[in-house]
Design goal:
697 residues; Immunoglobulin-like; Jelly Rolls
């Protein structure tokens, strides 16, 4: 009897410790079916015990899979949900089937394990008539800020914020990569993926270790310095200094990753500037440059900029701090992607130089209001944070510059902040490093208000035209100038046989006959117009770019506002803005003139205005945006000179000898290819017009 009782006790204990396996682990798999080339598909797995050794296998090695979120597994609960993100590259043939097999290992407590196979069919994306011809855009996936711009061994390297498996930036951010020898033709490279690798989901995934490489810069280190511990290369090193963002810890600090093969791949990164306790908000976007035998870092820190120095790129010391806003709120504005560059004054009789500080005005984008999620990745239902977030619609994506002096420790501003670009789509600008004799700047050509609504497929986001920077002095005022890079002559030369030219041609209320047969979806135009014949206030010159039977295209307008005053604007219609419900339908893409209208809603809210100088004085709304001359020569200052670059989904207009630029996205019908221009309220004269068509489609 005693033996039997002991046996029963052992059996009972065994059942308590090792209960019988439950039913099959996987209850439901949601997903499958058709998936496009260059698209992602989310697969949801629901069942018991699925936090134990969840593995995924794909029948096609080109298919990428990663863990997107977990729910209900944090406290060891039996039932849970795993969301996987499946990425189909563009090179997977259409009409091909592949299987995705999800396996759950058996567990004595919860389930006996199981597996499920999901079949997907690859379908081709239609060719998009909006893919840019001479602007860089990724072949597929999401793109935003340019990063790590560096020139080395005859190649311009462009890294950028990328979600290669999605057209939205809700996935795991990486650094995309492309190279060019002429800043016009770009070749995509394998993404510079730091962590985590976008490979098949392994047997375990520690979300505490997931981080993203936010914005940063890159510099060339050569000779003996390249052999030091920061690089450990034999000869030449590209050192990338970027922000490591760890969402689970709400922490941002600066890391360095070195490349010994010319920027094609990077070593495992290491920390160089940690965010100390208490952590600083928005501690990110380092721009590093050499200065008198040492390195200087410009860093965005909440509502100000901090400057650091280092002798070896590893140990950094704080030099100074420059506040740019009077206060910092959760929504913004806050500083993003700063840059500090020295430029010679081109029309100075001496070797005078000035320093130019550029930066972007960040804010919490409204689209994030729709994406609040809890720690498991599920949407929040609480209305309070969403209501607060909606206030961010008072902001817009814009980039600014300040002219001043840099003494190696402090930047002392000598001008009001001015807009780098008066259009709606120019953000997070950066300059290439290691370009002796010139400074080249480019930016993300988009706006956080509607970046997620842009209708391009299978990519979203593109780079602005790279621009050569200059500095001029006019009547005691210093102006930054921007000019499309000279390398665009390659495209102009290829179009020589199809160039349209007009000289000394009257411009009336009808488009000149010489333009009626012009057709192109991408072109480059030089235009000079004598506006002396438009004497009346509100008389206008209208230029319709990519017009046709279904729309007016992007409309460029110069309007007389006084005897020596005018305004230049760039407008897109709702039909060419990605949909009637899109925020792209805002009418004014830009608004600038010889005297800027005080009513233009480009200024920050009154309690968060930009500072005019280091004494914290608050300028008026009008004085924040400088008065910019755009009519620059001719009798009575009557000649309006414009450089107009039109690509298949963008327009960039340069005026005022480069002091004014307007950049905007638009999405015309593929059949709209006309160039129309006319006047209202008087007459004008086309002094000269040359249009170089880059396409025949």
């Amino acid at each position: 009897m005693k033996v039997r009782i002991v046996s029963m006790l052992y059996a009972t204990a065994a059942l308590l410790i090792f209960p019988a396996p439950a039913r099959s682990a996987i209850e439901k798999v949601v997903g499958g079916g058709g998936v496009h080339q260059g698209e992602t598909r989310r697969i949801t797995v629901i069942g018991d015990g699925i936090d134990f050794a969840t593995t995924v296998a794909s029948s096609d090695a080109r298919i990428g899979v990663r863990l997107l979120s977990k729910k209900g597994l944090a406290q060891g609960r039996a039932k849970g949900q795993v969301v996987l993100e499946v990425a189909v590259p563009l090179n997977v043939p259409k009409d091909q089937n592949f299987n995705l097999t999800v396996k759950i290992a058996p567990n004595l407590y919860y389930s006996k394990g199981g597996s499920e196979t999901v079949r997907l069919n690859v379908q081709a994306y239609p060719n998009s008539s909006w893919r840019p011809l001479f602007h860089f855009a990724p072949s597929w996936g999401w793109m935003n800020d340019p990063n790590g711009l560096v020139y080395v061994n005859g190649k311009y390297h462009l890294y950028y914020q990328a979600v290669p498996f999605s057209r939205d930036n809700g996935g795991q951010l990486n650094w995309g990569h492309a190279v060019s020898t002429d800043l016009v033709h770009w070749s995509g490279r394998r993404d510079a993926m730091f962590n985590p690798p976008m490979d098949l989901l392994g047997s375990s995934d520690d979300q505490n270790q997931v981080w993203s490489p936010f914005s940063g810069s890159a510099v060339v280190v050569s000779g003996e310095a390249a052999k030091q511990s920061s690089c450990d290369c034999s000869n030449l090193c590209i050192a990338s200094i970027f922000t490591k963002n760890t969402p689970i810890l709400a922490l941002q600090d600066q890391w360095l990753a070195a490349s010994c093969d010319g920027g094609e791949s990077f070593k495992i990164p290491e920390s160089v500037l940690p965010n100390l306790t208490p952590p600083k908000p928005d501690f990110r976007d380092p721009k590093v440059f050499p200065y008198k035998g040492r390195w200087i870092m410009v860093l965005a820190v909440g509502d100000k900029i901090e400057l650091y120095e280092s002798a070896n790129l590893k140990q950094w010391n704080l030099l100074s701090s420059l506040p740019l806003y009077s206060s910092l709120t959760t929504l913004g504005p806050f500083v993003e992607t700063p840059d500090l560059i020295e430029l010679p004054v081109s029309n100075s009789k001496t070797s005078e130089t000035k320093w130019v500080l550029t930066y972007s005005e960040g804010f919490f984008p409204p689209v994030a209001c729709q994406g609040f999620r809890d720690s498991t990745g599920m949407p929040l239902t609480a209305p309070a944070p969403k209501k607060e977030c909606e206030k961010s619609r008072n902001f817009t994506s814009r980039s600014l510059y300040i002219i001043g002096k840099f003494d190696g420790k402090q930047f002392k501003q000598e001008s009001q902040p001015r807009l780098l670009d008066f259009g709606s789509d120019f953000y997070a600008p950066q300059t290439w490093s290691n370009t002796p004799g010139r400074r080249i700047l480019a930016a993300w050509q988009d706006n956080w208000h509607y970046a997620h609504q842009v209708p391009t497929t299978p990519w979203r986001g593109q780079l602005s035209i790279p621009r050569d920077l200059g500095l001029i002095r006019d009547n005691g005022t210093y102006w930054l100038t921007q000019t499309p890079v000279q390398e665009l002559v390659v495209l102009r030369n290829s179009a020589l046989g199809r160039v349209t030219r007009l000289e000394n041609k009257p411009l009336t209320n009808r488009t000149p006959d010489e333009l009626k047969n012009f057709r192109s979806t991408a072109f480059d135009a030089d235009l000079a117009i004598d506006v002396a014949g438009l004497p009346k206030v509100n008389s206008q010159i209208k230029i319709q770019l990519r017009a046709g039977n279904t729309g007016q295209g992007m409309v460029l307008t110069w309007r007389r506002t006084g005897a020596d005053k005018g305004q230049l604007s760039l407008t897109r219609s709702a039909s060419e803005a990605g949909g009637s419900t899109s925020e792209l339908t805002q009418q004014e893409s830009g608004f600038i003139g010889q005297w800027l209208s005080a009513s233009v809603p480009l200024a920050a809210p009154i309690n968060q205005q930009l500072m005019s100088d280091s004494t914290n004085a608050q300028p008026s709304t009008r004085s924040q945006i400088a008065q910019v001359p755009i009519v620059v020569s001719g009798t009575n200052n009557s000649i309006l000179k414009l450089r107009i670059l039109v690509d298949r989904s963008s327009v960039e207009v340069f005026a005022g000898d480069g002091r004014v630029v307007l950049s905007g996205l638009f999405f015309p019908d593929a059949s709209n290819k006309q160039f129309r221009m006319y006047v209202t309220g008087g007459n004008a004269k086309i002094v000269s017009l040359t249009i170089y068509p880059f396409s025949n489609d």
